[in-house]
Model the fold of this input.
Amino acid sequence: MLRNLVLVAASLALGFAPAPARAASASPGDAATGYQRTIELGPNAIELRVQQARSAGSSDALSGEGTVATQLPGDGHLTLRLPYVVAQAPVVGTAQLAASYSLANESPLVPSVAVAAHVDLPTAPGARGARPGVRASAMKTLGLGVIDTVRVESELWTDGATLTPSYRALVGTTFRLLRTTSGSLELVALRPSAGTGAVNDNLVQLAVSHRLDPATNLHFGVAAGLAYGVSPLRVTLGLDHRF
Done:
């Protein structure tokens, strides 16, 4: 399983030019990560995702991210993320390896609960040492008209040599548009540690997902900061395929 994960990750690194210095060293909650979606896997599956994004007003850099995921024993998932930016000098960003597990299945009164432990690997230029973090999420199916689910997520990760904590919180909902098309709306609060030089930010993210076939999905997303001048408008186009 790990061998397959490494082989596909190597294909990502070789097959796609990689991130400007700012995005290359971005933390998991950085606004530059743009639109993201939880990966669901079937037994013994390997899922590969590649998505591209460009910030409004930027004409010289195209950022993207490759993701490889596979199943772990006991209803767990192992995921490797590899961000990159294609500019004057293509750069690989901070890779992240994460193991996630479901703690509680959904019932009429209880939401599904999951937790993930992750580590940011020092693959970006200037990165120093690994940075661990943890994320917890809860999701409840509502089935109220077009509204399908509501989700709450909280994440803590560390920065710098002293591993100063930063925080991220998310509240979102998914809704049905057509038989093979769904959407999501998310509100995100970012609270980076003072040592990173980043400022607090609040984001709104709107995304649409369309199923092209049983194994392939197309995603389109828009993310923007709620405070003027903090975050540029970011548009993302993604394609994921299950092998």
